Fold this protein.
Amino acid sequence: MRIARLISSLFLSFAVASLAIPVPSRAQVAVGISVRIGPPVLPVYVQPICPEPGYIWVPGYWAYGPDGYFWVPGTWVFPPEVGLLWTPGYWDWDDGFYIWHDGFWGTEVGFYGGVDYGFGYPGTGFFGGYWQGGAYYYNRSVTNVDVAIVRNTYNTTVVNNNTTVNRVSFHGGPGGATARPTSQELQTSNERHVAMTSVQTQHQETARTDRALLASVNHGRPDVAASPRPGEFHGRAPLTKSTEPNPNPGKNNRDEMNRPDTNDRPPSLRPSETAPGNPKLEQKQQKEVEKLRQQQDTERQKMESQHNQERQSMEQGRTDQRRQDELQRRQQQQAEQMQRKHDQQSQKLQERQQKEQQREQQKPQKPPKGEKP
């Protein structure tokens, strides 16, 4: 009888442990790891400002390690080559297992499971920016850029056809995203891909060793959900120096990246250029841009602090999952509303400055001293 009980106890322990330990499967060999427990929902966070021209946003995601799921903060990184875009990785439900599909770099953004990562990745396609003439243009309606630093910008509203805010982090299965790859995405899957860069790999490894990023510790709400550069967690030094050169061949300095080919761009989307020969106007407009940026940064920091306090208060009160989900949806809506507000403010400032520049250009030129008009 004791032996039977011992065998039953061992069998039960093995069954429980198998729910959290990666289980080999046929799909695992071809794709990546697979686990029985699905990842948490995507946390709500504000995108850090783009450090400088050439960086591309890589959204955060839930990865899996020896201690379970851990959050890899979203961050800005340099692509391995000019012209490449990032396709995020995603979890896919398959016959009781959640299987990870690695992200990759390619000339087109492929299928990423219909997961709404935000910031230009609404679940299908990519609307955060595009390459032209060796320079990368940023869609300011979905990415956080400072026009004083990044001048290759445009504004295109991204409409999400989903009527409900969905922060699900996996595809397929009960409650998962239901998107199916388009013909273009299927074609993209057969084209040349470039794996994540060494900086991205180090970024993920740094996150794996940070216990505060474990889902079992933060309950799906990491304190550091995004970072301006890879490896910048909790004020730590980045994995790469702030003066890291762009590894891309071709145009790899700020002056070159800010000199786009605008022949086929609508006038409303072209970068603003201050009228030559008027340093006072240029200095005035630069101060206006800096003042607006500081104001917006202060508002974002205030909102982040408020959101953190709300989440901590809810955790201490041990609120049920439904109310936690409602809080996440409300915070996400507030973050999106603030982003739209800031975009409108920046757009109005840019339009006003462009009018000032046009008036300056229309003024009659004064003849040099000593010459009659």
User: Anything to note?
Assistant: The longest helix spans residues 321-362.
